[in-house]
Amino acid sequence: MRQVKPIFFLLLIATVLGACNRNPLKVDISKSKKEVKFVRFDKELFALPLKDTLTEISELSNKYPDFFNLFTSRIIRIGRVGDKEFPRLLARFLTDTMILNVERIVNKNFTDFEETEKQINRAFKYYQYHFPGKEVPTIFVYTSGFNQSVVTYKNSIGISLDKYLGRNCRYYKKLSTAPQYKITNMHKAKIPSDVAYAWASAQFGEQSRATNLIGNMIYQGKLMYFVDALLPDVNDSLKIGYTTKQLDFCENNEAEMWKYLVERKMLFSTKRMDIIRYINDGPTTSGFPLEAPGRAGIWLGWQIVRQYMKKFPETTLKKLMQNNDYQQILNDSEYFPE
């Protein structure tokens, strides 16, 4: 019996450590039955023979009425069905040499979209777990001519596949709207986290209620925690779009960044430029060392929300997302990195 005790205690310690390290967001999603529907809108659009453009447009528009208008008016910006010049403008888009070349690259890079579909579908099973009764979106994928990466409308999500062709895509370096810090995240593996973040923004777009820097930080931190919940197996660098080196900097300098904001009384600043400096994307975060990646304020807000949820494990994701009292979240988190 004496030999059994050490083994028993080792097993007990292993169990306790395992429980401490277990991700509470890795919940049982076996009861989430609804599947996300994927539509390869690009293939249907580029398959139009353009023999009777108006008739063909009407057929596709009637098949996907909401998304078709979203695509033409908001994404490629040529107007809506019924506009006088619409058939000509759509035909010009579908026969443009660059657009056709990009569509060929898209088809080559996304011959197998199955793995990405599985990841997104699994993410929305987690969504169903946290928000039972909510409908899952229909996801449309397409070539947009390098317009918005991910858009949302009602119960639809649109993904521009030509914004995820890989960091070495020759077209990206020619785009004035795609600086290197953005190109870094223009690859296939980034799609699921971009979709989760876009869906969080669409479902909980109360950012206007955040009037100061800390409010904006925590609001963005909530969106990132939503991404955590939908993608519990994805690493942090991919979720926020940082390199390993950038993430290491944030983790190693968390206390210093927080101290900087506190000492300069920046947290409660309502100045637009102060908020933009720490929240908006960019190669670096102005005010912090050059090694600090852009959006470092979002990363800090993310850690505040994580600590809040760790302190109050009974708080559901739904309750967190509905809580717009950013000051209360900060106070209750007792966040003060050392």
Secondary-structure element order, N to C:
HEHHHHHHEEEHHHHHHHHHH
Instruction: Record the strand order, biggest sheet.
Output: 1-2-4-3
Strand content: 5-15%
Number of domains: 2
Largest sheet: 4 strands, mixed
Query: Structural class given helices, strands, pairing?
Result: mainly alpha
Based on CA atoms alone, the radius of gyration comes out at 23 Å
How many distinct helices? 17
Q: Helicity, in percent?
A: 40-55%
Report, as a whole number of angstroms, the end-to-end distance.
45 Å
Task: Give the overall pLDDT as a whole number.
Answer: 91
Q: Which regions are unreliable across 5 or more consecutive residues at pLDDT < 50?
A: 1-5, 7-19
Shape: globular
What is the count of β-strands?
A: 4
How does this structure look, described?
Helices cover 54% and strands 5% of the residues. The protein contains 17 helices and 4 strands. It has helices spanning 4-21, 41-46, 53-63, 65-75, 86-95, 97-109, 114-130, 180-183, 191-203, 213-230, 236-240, 244-252, 254-263, 272-279, 296-311, 317-322, 326-333, and strands at 37-40, 138-142, 150-153, 156-160. It has a 4-stranded mixed beta sheet with strand order 1-2-4-3, with helices on both faces. A hairpin with a 2-residue loop joins strand 3 (150-153) and strand 4 (156-160). The longest helix has 18 residues, at 4-21.
